[in-house]
Amino acid sequence: MSGYMEEYLRWRQAEKLAPQLKAELEAIANNPKEIEERFYTELEFGTAGLRGILGAGTNRMNAQVIKRATLGLSEYILGFAGGAERGVAIAYDSRRMSREFALEAALTLCAKGIHAYIYDSLRPVPMLSYMVRRLKCIAGIVITASHNPPEYNGYKVYWEDGAQLPPEAGWRAGRPQAGGDHIRRNKAAGLLLRPRYDDRAGSGKRAFNMAWRR
Q: Which of 10, 81, 100, 140 is the most buried (most CB within 10 A)?
């Protein structure tokens, strides 16, 4: 059996995979070309970040790929003294699944003990860059695919200076987890999210009002 078919079956059999993604995989069970296209490779970061067509598979944008990317970023952040406490700002646009992906990124950060600050509604990229510096976060995440067609979404990372952080800086995404077990195990261990108002942003408090932390 080919590697991409094994990966397809691993995803399809994952108990905690989102129902809509599992339905997609079941629908292509007799379409080997579609299975290969979705699983022959993993989405990789480029100079414009991570982006791809929404859907199930390692070569698609979905919650599992967001978790993979955020786990890689988390490990990088934890290599800096005080990085977890400084936290990560998160923004998202109006594309399909943008808010859901932003919340997945926040959950993953919190599971690793990193503070996450997420806008309560959609914002343009420059506002994320501003908030990273305003809150003195170590990094920022934007869920957006910019000018790409509507079936796409993406994931961009910014560093403490408000500028985009390319993968060449030394961080890499981890392996996709089909069932998301790593998040649920951490939540069961007590790393639950608690909303609170954050006042470090001053006049930006109301717009940037939800903090997620351990």
A: 140
146 is catalytic: yes
Q: Return per-residue pLDDT of the chain as tens, 214 residues.
A: 679 999 999 999 998 888 999 999 999 999 999 999 999 999 887 766 789 999 999 999 999 999 999 998 999 999 999 999 999 999 999 999 999 999 999 999 999 999 999 988 889 889 999 999 999 999 999 999 888 899 999 999 999 999 988 666 656 554 444 444 433 333 322 233 333 334 344 433 333 334 444 3
Please give the full DSSP string across the chain, using - where no structure is assigned. Answer: --HHHHHHHHHHT-TTS-HHHHHHHHHTTT-HHHHHHHHSS----BTTBEEEEBSSSTTSBSHHHHHHHHHHHHHHHTTSTTHHHH-EEEEE-SSTTHHHHHHHHHHHHHHTT--EEE-SS---HHHHHHHHHHTT-SEEEEE--TTS-TTEEEEEEEETTSSB--GGGS-------SS-HHHHHHHHTT-----B---TTGGGTTTT-EEE--
- Which residue in the list 2, 129, 146, 203 is annotated as catalytic? 146
Please state the separation of Cα 203 from the chain's center in Å.
Answer: 27
User: Which residue's structure tokens are 């932390």?
Assistant: 213
Structure tokens at 127: 């506002």
